[in-house]
């Protein structure tokens, strides 16, 4: 009965989405304002029903209801509760239901909390949001029903992919989806504002918190995903320019550009058409990312051709939404004035440079990710595009971008003086030069990119705090602190990346119990190897004691896990974190002579990569809180003024 | 009948077991003594694709074939071959699929031109955004 109830809730939510779209469309077209009042409650009800449907699916997974085909394929009754729960979205149908749930909830939030937008634009926005949801409802109900029953009922399920059985699964996909779908709100706002010809500073101020929120979630999702891949896959890599990773990076790049251009629109009424365009592009990137990951096209173009139903469905949705939005943009761009123009040396100038460089990076990642697919489809020849290409093509552009990031916040709006700017950033420039000099002098084997990256990071770290210089710190608005912390976070992450790729030390040994392993200042002793058992796995666990530079001895226990249900092995790396880096130990295969393959890495300052990501997200949170508080205070003031009058 | 099958299977299994029992590729997980050569081998391994995996380099893979390839790379580097020679040799055997650094061929030139093209496009877009110095006054 639970499955049926879930399906009914899903159908009802889809019906309400249709109603929401119709109310908005007819209301705005025919100017029937009585429809406007109805759209908010409908949007709320739709969000509630789709959430109910998703909760029921979670319940089915928690109960291990083996009459539901999705549970059978992706769960098993002996599995930790956390993975039964998180396994709900560790599969195609569940993740699409999560997607549409987040969309419904976003609609609910707009309906409940958005007060600064003109009513007509708000109604159009909600209608656009419902229109996008409808496509995904259709997708779920027609080709990916998560509640499908199975007969005969099997005794147990097939289990979840062991690589996914990690707390990371509970956190990473939902965060990323919140970000992806948050960008749908920006998309709907853009469509709404284009239809009602309302693109201006007020619209930008209303859209900004949504963009910021989506961007914060994307930042956290990517950071978490990177760390998850780092410790779970057992090879210590944190970014591989893998198409799946790129699929999450592209919306982030577009959202980063969007949140900077929306500031120009909100503050100076410039970049109108460009901002609307970016909002469309950002969500398009989310959908393209979802298409890439969900259609199976990445494994092989041919795998996609064998079972094209789902892929074709998403492709059709992509064509309708992106094509429709682009057509609308082309029709209305003539009526959207570009807005105020400005000097090259100005805050706007730096933000335009930020936008264009980010767009160039986005373009490069896009081309690099899709080119092999195009080549394979056209010529049947297979091509790999990986880190060498992406690092070479995006690295220099990214460095230029972060250099501009150091200067941008120190520029005045409208017009500034190049000499005055040079004066203001003289200290960061000196710091960068000094850092470069020291690095060249003291280190060996750094690549040019890492060298410049680390030197620039030192300069940016200083420059990011410069906007606070000589200001009353208590009266500085919170969103300025947000910017400072986010920019500082970029510098922190950059140091981590450059350090990891330049100074990592690796040791591979075949060790017998009693053997010593030395990497950098770590002295390790391979003590013993023992079998251990978990809830749904058995493992060989090695006990290794480790000592850093004659300090305290610590024990680490890397494992080799065997999962009975899937007949697969995973290696559980052991990590020891110190302030200046991480020791990463993995247990490999054993040989006939009783030796065990052990891989050990010392990765100096690698943790800064993720601390940087967290700081960037924290900056975003402060900006949201600051902006919302200011809005609230302004509204209170207005109400008070009206009351007094 | 069933016993015969089991017997046949076990007889057939012996050569297979013997095969996997052979010493694995010697340098699959053994570093070269010379740190410079090991670093060169490591850099190359990170740019070669594990052909049996999904999106992993041979430096990051547990697959036996990736181990064989690692061993090949280390042995050839130790014998004095340059990374580019080894890469070309592998591309000849397995096609461009094996290298994450796409070779510059007529088929890949759009890929390599794209970044330059995109940057020029960005500059061109920028030109239109700014007020000319002249109409400032």
How many beta-strand segments of chain B?
0
Major β-sheet annotation of chain B: none
- How many whole angstroms does the radius of gyration of chain B measure? 25 Å
The percent of residues in helical segments of chain B reads: 55-70%
CATH class of the domain at 1-165 in chain A equals Mainly Alpha
Number of helices of chain A: 19
What is the CATH C-level name of the largest domain in chain B? Answer: Mainly Alpha
How many DSSP E strands of chain A?
Answer: 10
What value does the Rg of chain A take, in angstroms? 27 Å
- What series of H and E elements makes up the topology of chain A? HHHHHHHHHHHHHHHHHHEEEEEEEEEEH
Tell me what the structure shows.
The complex is a heterodimer of chains A (645) and B (137). Chain A is an alpha+beta fold. Chain A is built from 19 helices and 10 strands. Chain A has helices at residues 2-30, 34-62, 69-74, 81-86, 92-113, 119-143, 167-195, 201-232, 243-268, 272-294, 301-306, 308-332, 347-379, 387-407, 418-424, 426-442, 448-463, 478-503, 608-644; strands spanning 505-511, 516-519, 522-533, 537-548, 553-556, 559-563, 568-572, 574-578, 581-590, 596-604. In chain A, strands 2, 3, 4, 5, 6 and 7 form a 6-stranded antiparallel sheet that branches. In chain A, strands 1-10-9-8 form a 4-stranded antiparallel sheet, with helices on one face. Chain A is globular and about 85 Å long. Chain B has 2 domains: 27-99, Orthogonal Bundle (Helicase, Ruva Protein, domain 3), CATH 1.10.8.640; 103-130. Chain B has 5 helices and no strands. In chain B, helix 2 (35-45) packs across helix 3 (64-78). The interface between A and B is large, with 51 and 42 residues.
Give short descriptive properties of this protein.
heterodimer; A: 645 residues; Four Helix Bundle (Hemerythrin (Met), subunit A); six-stranded antiparallel beta sheet; four-stranded antiparallel beta sheet; 19 helices; 10 strands; B: 137 residues; mainly alpha; Helicase, Ruva Protein, domain 3; 0% strand; elongated
